[in-house]
Give the backbone structure.
Amino acid sequence: MSHGETVPSELRYTKDHEWVRLEGDCAVMGITEFAQSELGDLVFVDLPSIGKTVTRGDTVCVVESTKAASDVYSPIGGKVTEVNVALKDSPELVNKEPFGTGWLVKLAGVSAEEVGGLLSAEGYTKLLSGK
């Protein structure tokens, strides 16, 4: 982890570099600082429709950078209740604040067990460092 990525301890992570923050029975998700740094400058975020139901592993949205377009997979199952509309005009928020204003979607009806099965900050840090 030579880049010194931030890995907030209160979040859960996937091996595909997505993060989840539980808020009651809803979850906010986005991509990690590592993911956005690998992608480069984002130029477009294709967000899902409100009401779309996803299961873990489904493509939930697509982020396009100056390098390539990449699918973002849903770390957990749920129903899309909100999307970050600010990203339509300012996709660079994902680069600037991937854990803050650069969040992607909010899911409702999520399972705390499913979230609990994701990587902890410690586990994700080990993944990044290759240990």
Observations:
- The longest strand covers residues 59-65.
- The two ends are 10 Å apart (CA to CA).
